[in-house]
Amino acid sequence: MTKMIVLGDSIMWGVTGFDSQHPRANPTIPAHIGTLLGWTVDNQAISGTRWADVDNKDNFLEQVAKFNFANYDVALMGYGINDFDDAPHSSPTQITYAMNKGIAKIKSDNPNIHLYIELPTPSFVYGSNDGAVNPSGYSQKQIYDTIKSEAQLLEVPAYDWRDNPLITYDNRAQTLGDGQIHPVNAVQQTMAERLANWIESHEQSTASNADNDLIDWSSLDQGQTTNSEGGSTAQTVTYTPIEVATINGPDSLNQAFNSNAALIINTICKIASEDASAVSWHAQTFATLGRELRNYIADTIATIKQVSGQTLGTTNTETSTGETVSVEAMEAPTSLMIGDVITTLNNDFKGAETALNAILATL
User: Fold this and answer.
1) Is the pLDDT of residue 314 over 90?
2) Nearest residue to 96 via CA among 73, 79, 72
3) Helix 291-311 with 338-360: angle, nearest 10 deg
4) I need a surface site. Which of 66, 73, 155, 329 has the fewest CB within 10 A?
5) Top-confidence range, 6-10, 143-147, 338-342
6) Which residues lie closer than 8 Å to 215 by C-beta, 6 or more apart?
7) Is 223 left (phi over 0), alpha (psi -120 to 50) or beta?
């Protein structure tokens, strides 16, 4: 039977509120997932914990150190709300460091383990999640986007409740037992059902890919296989083209940039059969469009070009209009006008997309 370990905070533990009307969820989210999937579940969630190792609690890294993940088939991780809510507040850099280090340890214990991340549900400790900012100046959106971007870079599926919210500022009195953080029992059951369906879809996809790996590739002769009448039929492995996100304005610049950078780095490494986790780049988010973000953009583009040059060499590709594009042609914006910065970045990423898709089409 599949065995899953769950690492997380009070919501995964089952807190529904802080009075006698809101006892521990029954069943808890992990237990309900286990029942729905027919799995054995080891719920190691601890209230008050977080991704970043910034206090004296059993946070993600301390938890990871306790277990040998070779004993599990699946790991579900659900942290983040305390990184945003509680002092000392976690920075995006601290979160990405912990995620990277901890997940690397899990994979070293068990390279075949299936990993899943559940993003936090909204917190209303500092007001509406649409504009909530904690005392350290980090917005809820910034913290949650950091977790999502790092999960993408590490190639770990992440479930984002913001895509189809169960809990909103308007319904918080009905959906949260304390009106701020902890979902009531009924909402936690629905959360478990959604997560179980999402995990199951990924497990089925993984099983399908595993079946494809059973093909005897040695029987293929340069992409040809002989049919029953002595002829030959082409066998083609299709690689899905990548599609970068368009930066539509200042509000989406940081998030879209992170998403595109992770996609480009992962694609380069896939083409070169290299491990993307070995690349020394981590998604970062910034509260303002200032010098720190500008420097981060320049450093990221330099990293992308370095990774591409070291693994792929030249990626020059001619477009249908006769223009030559490549990953190595990417350049950090030099203008101080935000419109010019966005235009340059969109052109950079579109050129890299075209060049990498041309390579993928030949594989």
Assistant:
1) no
2) 79
3) 20
4) 66
5) 6-10
6) none
7) left
Cβ distance 157 to 117 under 8 Å?
Answer: yes
Per-chain mean pLDDT for the chain:
88
Nearest Cα residue to 303 out of 337, 339, 278? 278
Q: Which fold has domain 3-207?
A: Rossmann fold (3.40.50)
What is the structure's pLDDT at 18? 87
Q: Residue 125 region, left (φ>0) first, then alpha (ψ -120 to 50), else beta?
A: alpha
Please report how many Cα atoms fall inside a 13 Å half-sphere around the Cα of residue 222, on the Cβ side: 0
Distance CA 221, CA 227 (A): 12
DSSP-derived 3-state class of residue 325? strand
Residue 222 pLDDT level (bands cut at 50, 70, 90) = very low
Domain positions in the chain: 3-207, 250-360
279-311 burial code (b ≥16 CB/10 A, e <16)? bebbbbbbeeeeeebbebbeebbeebbebbeee
Residues 224-279 have pLDDT tens digits of 444 444 444 444 445 678 999 999 888 889 988 998 999 999 899 888 888 877 78
Q: Which helix (H) or strand (E) holds 195?
A: helix 185-212
| 242 close to 360: Cβ distance less than 8 angstroms | yes
- Phi first, then psi: give them for residue 251, nearest 5 degrees: -65, -30
Determine which of 42-46, 116-120, 328-332 has the lowest per-residue pLDDT on average. 328-332
Rounded to the nearest 5°, which phi and psi values hold at 247? -80, 110
- Residue 336, number of CB atoms within 10 A of its CB: 8
